[in-house]
Amino acid sequence: xxxxxxxxxxxxxxxxxxxxxxxxxxxxxxxxxxxxxxxxxxxxxxxxxxxxxxxxxxxxxxxxxxxxxxxxxxxxxxxxxxxxxxxxxxxxxxxxxxxxxxxxxxxxxxxxxxxxxxxxxxxxxxxxxxxxxxxxxxxxxxxxxxxxxxxxxxxxxxxxxxxxxxxxxxxxxxxxxxxxxxxxxxxxxxxxxxxxxxxxxxxxxxxxxxxxxxxxxxxxxxxxxxxxxxxxxxxxxxxxxxxxxxxxxxxxxxxxxxxxxxxxxxxxxxxxxxxxxxxxxxxxxxxxxxxxxxxxxxxxxxxxxxxxxxxxxxxxxxxxxxxxxxxxxxxxxxxxxxxxxxxxxxxxxxxxxxxxxxxxxxxxxxxxxxxxxxxxxxxxxxxxxxxxxxxxxxxxxxxxxxxxxxxxxxxxxxxxxxxxxxxxxxxxxxxxxxxxxxxxxxxxxxxxxxxxxxxxxxxxxxxxxxxxxxxxxxxxxxxxxxxxxxxxxxxxxxxxxxxxxxxxxxxxxxxxxxxxxxxxxxxxxxxxxxxxxxxxxxxxxxxxxxxxxxxxxxxxxxxxxxxxxxxxxxxxxxxxxxxxxxxxxxxxxxxxxxxxxxxxxxxxxxxxxxx
Length: 611
Hints:
The protein is 8% helix and 39% strand. By secondary structure, it is mainly beta. It folds into two domains: 12-50, no CATH class; 132-610, Porin. The chain is elongated, with a radius of gyration of 35 Å.
């Protein structure tokens, strides 16, 4: 079949352009209006485009109506570079020998100790020129903490004049230095997807010195005096992660991680936030709108004085199974919801003493009898904002049973609850916030129901966090056993020997909190924060049974705190934090510790340097 076409007569404008072009020499034609019109005719297809001439391609481009600009000889920067693409191939993909070192080829070089620019030791470029990366980190954490807390005296005799037979001098000083080093090796192109495989190890060394005014306040042997020096090395991370699959075109993933790894069951660390050995399957779906975790952990013993993992001891008979699911932008855009299921199975029925000589399991309260328990936690957590209001909420219901109660020989059913919320709003450089929390207390320590809420291992970032006196300090329950009324860096009044080595205790007084606070960004380097918290016991029946004391009040007291944070280089590489807090005792606190002191203080100086 023969193709046919229709030829349309040229318009008067086209004919005039052709006639004008024919009357001009070639050199003049290039800079004439007729030449520009011919170029237009080529674009619309009325004239054929000129064929490609390699010699002509060396002539530089020019703007219409302007003369050619002469070429400028520039010094050669990269002799191994690929030649530029021809003019007709501009915009095409061009291979380069090593995309990670393009800037180096242009003369940009940075020393190995500079963490702010391209650095092979910080994972900015591969160690082998392909897709193997190494990230090294070092942290120095220096702490100076003068404080005052109720302190028991030694049973044999007080060491200070003016002490009674129960309470001694309250002033103490804590000095601690921690060095943390970590190495992360991973393989893969991580621009849009997780690494194919990664390995990480983190080791921490801690030296601490504590000075008190009473013997036997720190160690069981009174001959060891009023000062304790201690050092410890702990393995905080040691895990491997494999990328199993990447469903979808947006690189959602399913990853498997095995080993000692960090994990937080919720946004603010209310239930379980720790570094423990386990197996964890986690990933995302629907362009990261859904996130999930399935994990099993077995807890390690910790060194009590430093809080670091002790891998030289056998793991504890304390098992944790957790599953949670996150949904972004639910129920509203900008808010993330999370549902959590956690099961804790504890079978620690053997006696355990800490390195200071005090018994940790079973707790020295009530019957002091070994016990085991099974408890499940059903929780909802949310974090995000609704319009200008930032909001964090958390709620847990604990359900289970234990072999016997703290004060009874019979078995006990665990039924306890927890709720917390913090709302805030930003006004330029000022953020104001309000906080509230409730943890149920046990109303009858002698029945077969344990209704005091306790967590697995809490580290709350809430209501001022460790700036708050109540959250920061471990206040001992003097005269009621070798347990603490509240744990260090803890929100709950759970009557455990310690959260590092003790068992969860569901026969406790519980706690209530109402607080307000503000954060002021004075400069990009400097932030000032303040908090005013009011604390109460939820119930006092357990305290009355432990102390054999009637009519203990519920009000703990007023907690005032202020903190200043300074980042001299606008980054997290150097952070200095100075804070002070005071607890003004309420009726319940005075019933437990007397009214000899009108206030208790906590000062904190903390310098963190990170590479």
